[in-house]
TrEMBL record:
Lineage, highest ranks first: Bacteria, Bacillati, Bacillota, Clostridia, Lachnospirales
Protein known as: Uncharacterized protein
Organism, scientific name: Dorea formicigenerans
Amino acid sequence: MKQEEIRKCTKVVELFRSMMDELGDMCVVYDVRFGFIVLEYYMDGYFENNSNYDNAEDLYHHLLDKWKFCWIVDKALAHFEAAFRQIQTE
């Protein structure tokens, strides 16, 4: 990878750093041979999914899709928890 693309990918990773910290089961690492590697779903001592990226645009879209999914799940969970609390008070 060229230095400029490494710099761009690093900025993308930093953009999504808080999401990854909050999830706690994913991270992005850089390796000279493989580029930027997204490691996801850490269980039993290993990551179940990994994806390699050599450009910032593809890395951005992958992390954005992950963010969108987490946002939707969070909103749905909040909705169902509120509905469950309402059922309990009736």
